[in-house]
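Tokens help. One example:
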Amino acid sequence: MDKDLEEMFKEFEFNEKSEEMISEVNGMKLPDDYLGFIREHNGGEGPLGQNNYGRFYKLEELEEINEAYDVKNSWPGYIVIGGIDDTLWAYNPEKKIYCQIDSMNTDEDTYYTISNSFEEFLINMDKELAD
């Protein structure tokens, strides 16, 4: 893990590595930068940076979580990878973006922290909460 990300995750509690390796959810490909992180740490929960807190779901739970949230119908084209409370963290493979979604809203115009990489997404979430 890169030094900036190590600092961001210094108090985060990671899960055990998964025996199950998947690269797709609901027929959509997960991004390489996220897969690199998740294969190493398999998600977890805790503080992220100075201002954020959240959870990344275990790799082996992604299909089930996306089905439970009915992501195919509620947020078509997205894969939910984590979040906290009513905020979901998601990835869109076609647009190649990460974003935050209010789980009570299906209007794509309201998605925020739109980022082009996993690292940028983490940094942007932390900065937004500092303001």
